Amino acid sequence: MSRFERKNLAGMQGYSWGEQPHDTDTIKLNTNENPYPPSPSVQQALAAVDVARLRTYPPPTADALRAALATHHGLTQDNVVMTHGGDEGLRLAITTYVETDGAFGMATPSYSLYPVLAGVHGARVVDVPLQQDWRLPDDTAQRLNRENVTLTCLVNPHAPSGLLTPLADLARLAQELHGVLLIDEAYADFVDPALHYDSAPLLEHHDNVLILRTFSKGYSLAGLRLGYLLGHAELFAPIIGKSRDSYNIDFLSQRLGLASISDQPYASETWSKVRQARHDLRSALADLGLQAPVSEANFLLASVPQDAARSAAQLYAALKERGILVRYFDSDRLRDKLRITIGTPAENQRLLEALTQLL
């Protein structure tokens, strides 16, 4: 430990990211990436880039991309702020709306980066344990208000279960909370269209709502690090003018993001493939005795029964030896479970064959 390190950093654990293999044979079902490549429009946009443009700074607020996203969500450009990946959106929200000795709220279990970012900032984490069916308790807002929470992050669909919180529940939570509600929709592109999930209209009635989106999952651009926030212009004013890094979105990301968002038919096709594979994989896992709740994300949370030939931790290790990476969390409520990203049909079949042998 460096003697110059801040005390709050010295006493905390950092974020543990998913393993990144160095070979091309390993199947990555551990970091919830889209198994299909980005739109061909992205390749075309990249090939058309004039490298001389890299000599100058990019447009500081990425207005062309913001305008395209505003149209996509039925909002105005003032309702969109671009971020360097979804994670920067989280950091910006915490540094803008939470005092260094203030309180940050979240449900547990959830995205493990939330408490890390709050800890780096020096904020106190107030967690609300989810019910056994992964739903929020009815008194969630009351618990958070009692602790003077000024920002609450709620991932929807939930990670790691994949449960989708209904819009009516989100609206009620926003109405009851005294602070800002950030709805982290990293996986929202994979929600079944028949559910008609669209949280953007919440902004018309709630000036304390932020919606976080990313290009990493639905648009297959995890390697680009591009995301955005949706919210009221007044809510965004301190982010744009104070807490946001200058030129936080580089020239290439702006160009490739615009190409990607403009090709909705391609993106929608990949989401449909993932949804079908999700349905098929969940059914096949159940046949092996691994039950997973209904998921609206691009992953499943499979429970390993106590009488199985191997525990969840042992299955994780054995699959890794066979070149298949899934995610195992050694934490409360998750030690008997594996989180499995939806892959291509061929990848999912290889996983099922390995699980059949191991079980």
Protein architecture, described:
Helix 3 runs parallel beside helix 10 (about 250-260) and helix 4 crosses helix 5. The termini are far apart. About 45% of the residues are buried. The protein has helices spanning about 5-10, 40-45, 65-75, 85-95, 115-120, 140-145, 165-175, 200-205, 235-245, 250-260, 265-285, 310-320, 345-359; strands spanning about 25-30, 80-85, 105-110, 125-130, 150-155, 180-185, 210-215, 225-230, 300-305, 325, 335-340. With about 350 residues, the chain is of the alpha/beta class. The protein has 13 helices and eleven strands. It has a seven-stranded mixed β-sheet with strand order 2-8-7-6-5-3-4, sandwiched between helices. The longest helix has 24 residues, at about 265-285. Helices cover about 40% and strands about 15% of the residues. It folds into two domains: about 20-40 and about 265-359, Alpha-Beta Complex (Aspartate Aminotransferase, domain 1), CATH 3.90.1150.10; about 40-260, Aspartate Aminotransferase, domain 2.
